[in-house]
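## tool: complex_structure
## caller: assistant
## args:
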Amino acid sequence: MTGALVVLGGGAAGMSAASAARRADPDREIVVLESTGHAAYGLCGLPYHLSGVVPDAESLVSYPPAFFRERRRIDLRLHAEAVALDVARREVHVRTAGGVERVGYTDLVVTTGGTPSRPPVPVPDGTAVHTVRTLEDAVALRALLDSGRVRTAAVVGAGYIGLETAEALHARGVRVTVVERLDGVLTTLDEPVAARVEEHVRVHVELLLGTDAGPVLAERRPDLVVLCTGVRPAAGIAAAAGAATGPGGALLVDDRMRTDLPGVWAAGDCVAPHHRVLGRPAFVPLGPAANRTGRVAGTNAAGGDARFGGVVGTAVVKVFDLEVARTGLTLAEARAEGVAATATDVTSRSRAKYYPGAVPLHVRLVHGAGGRVLGAQLVGREGAAKRVDVVAAALHAGLDVDDLAALDLAYAPPYSPVYDPLLVVAQAAQRELARVA
Amino acid sequence: MTGALVVLGGGAAGMSAASAARRADPDREIVVLESTGHAAYGLCGLPYHLSGVVPDAESLVSYPPAFFRERRRIDLRLHAEAVALDVARREVHVRTAGGVERVGYTDLVVTTGGTPSRPPVPVPDGTAVHTVRTLEDAVALRALLDSGRVRTAAVVGAGYIGLETAEALHARGVRVTVVERLDGVLTTLDEPVAARVEEHVRVHVELLLGTDAGPVLAERRPDLVVLCTGVRPAAGIAAAAGAATGPGGALLVDDRMRTDLPGVWAAGDCVAPHHRVLGRPAFVPLGPAANRTGRVAGTNAAGGDARFGGVVGTAVVKVFDLEVARTGLTLAEARAEGVAATATDVTSRSRAKYYPGAVPLHVRLVHGAGGRVLGAQLVGREGAAKRVDVVAAALHAGLDVDDLAALDLAYAPPYSPVYDPLLVVAQAAQRELARVA
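## result:
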């Protein structure tokens, strides 16, 4: 008889895994061990709860625990923290309110997610320090904001979460200073593109780049410090049990999300899935891959057959009034990887120029040998977020600049110029390639 | 010595051709013969001038005649109507205010565009009858609307232009009845998708389907009738000179936009370019292809080398508050073509479900043998217009349903659910295919 399928972590990856396992095997015993008091919520929505855009924290939860327990017959255990993994005995050591117990498994799916980096920033006494990673984090921070005691805040880190958090705090009437050790915001973009975002951020909040947070906090003594200095894979338990790790310390998996430990799969922010453009594993902890790798891992762990197609590094973020999107490789990433690459930049428009609401849309196209499309970055007040998906599809299909320029893209004056900005940048890249040739 | 390059028609295709020819050959004599008093304007913007969204008709003109004449040294002749083509002598017979003259050419680019169908609808005496095809049409109709004498209008035809015109008239406070002979609106969509548009149209204007216009006009006696019953290729001159025609009477061209007449190229709404999904020429008179085929024809006519990659049938239209988009083949089109096909429908959301402004987005995915993606249709208050481009790229690359389901699409709560609606429909199609297999 096949024993329990145990999932470590009840986040997007974990609940996707458990649900997929249930679909693959209607009879299997499925246990989810979640360390916090909440499961199945969207991390990416947390800043919008802080800001008040999403008033009710519960609405971030896709399904309540009862749904999983009753409808999907998943034994979801909250406040159950896996602290060790005994691969030889196929047991997880779990700390609960009642002490540490052992939970046996036949198949294990590790979705232990990510942990906020906690840089050793000295914080003045009496200053509240928060991170924004769990629903509990967000609820606590929201309660603090609701108390009216926060007039000034420092956000440490100017990545996706840092900027989203700065926007949220600003929306709550807090005077915000963003402090970033590096010289730019959003280092997942090339510098000239990030500079456009930087300029926009400065309209709304104070931004200190190339700056250590410690002295700023000591001098300003803000009411609140939010640490948004990135996420590390929480791969500790599996790694301690001998699982191989790769980029950033994330777990290495095959395309079925199997680790090199027997009976152990992994998914979500603790793994480094295959990156199709890099051709190797990469650590890009984002929601869609968490959901999808979870589904693949759960299906396979339950005896089904699924493969993960990999990521191409697509991401989008709202930064105040800007849509900021990227996919594939930046020029800097390509060069760091030793890939010969060129960037072509154009600033086009989001709609026909005569149509009200047309705004500038900046597009950077990164292309390599033979005109192969390697990536794109888009920034504008509208039209960036989903246009990037066309390039994501182009990367998936291995299209080149000529292919991109030949795409039959939708046109109507309210939605696009007659030459879509993606076609404009592709045509500009063609001209550059022709000049070089 | 190489003689003049003559372009018949100063619309998007014609001015694209002339400009591309100038880039390909800085010294060539280039003549454009345009029958109306305006050149280089966007047809697709005309409804927005009627509605007042675009107050100034001149803003629809991309560049004024002086720009072409002075900056690009293009001999743009307005009010010059080509009436016949003498291929043996390489002469065009041109009617101007001064009579008919002959203009010789070495290379000719025919961009005579489209002509509104004029069905034999009996119109009551005293009722103004208009079409919306040229800038002059729009200016005249706009003046009539500005006069305040139009309180009721009948729009004959419920295609793209009919619905855009109905919206424009409605925005001007006119009571509008749309009369369509067929049983649905937008017959370029499958019926169940078009039904969603129909329901939305009925919220704003009266819609009479399956109805002959004549009796309605006789009974209602509206102040204004606008005929929007489609466009035929204006291929007459070239066809009369012996050029081969294909679907709908449009000119047949190769991928360099060469007709089968010596020295004669053609582009824009008068041609049937290659349709990549159908694998044959098709008449789809839309702005992007007009611009691009014009550019290709002009480049080649001037001795350069360019090819047109074909269309996949992508189109988008704003219908009141809906974005309506399509690409590839509808299920009906596929079946009419003898292509085995299935449609998968899902209604997803434009944003994360908890994010304000999330609205239903309906997606129909049409797929064929082996799961090959054949087309898509999207309808929603937001998120349809540019999402369709991902499927257009998929069609270009020949992706299948599994590929589409594996795309790494952008996610952030303000822009998409974590599974983009395109992934949701692709996953649904995968399940359907698995059931059948």
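## assistant note: The two ends of chain B are 65 Å apart (CA to CA). Chain B touches chain A through 65 residues (CB under 8 Å). Handing back to user.
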